[in-house]
Design a protein that fits this description.
Alpha-Beta Plaits
Amino acid sequence: MNSRSLRVTVRGAFADLSAEQRADLLADAAAHDVLRAEYTREGHLSYDVAARPFFTFRFADEVDVEDEIPAAQARAVATAESWLTTHGYGYRDLTAQTVDLSQQPMGKRQRREAARRAD
């Protein structure tokens, strides 16, 4: 059985940050720069709190059947909420979007490589 690779993106906004929390986020901002963003199993957090209070968690996951996709999305949201709560950050407006990579159309390079393998 083929597994389905998923990318789950959880977005939200920091809420009611204290001056100390804001300073902590700013001090660690380089590690959470959007230019370093990647989808990982444990989730990657990116933000630019100096510009705006929004954040994005990116999660990579795999499921065996389509029916498991909502559970994978719920896990990602729960993990993001847990991280924020554990670190004492308030948050609001959480949303999640899941992309099933097996359903994405192939790009030109992927089509060319698939055709090459078929020959």
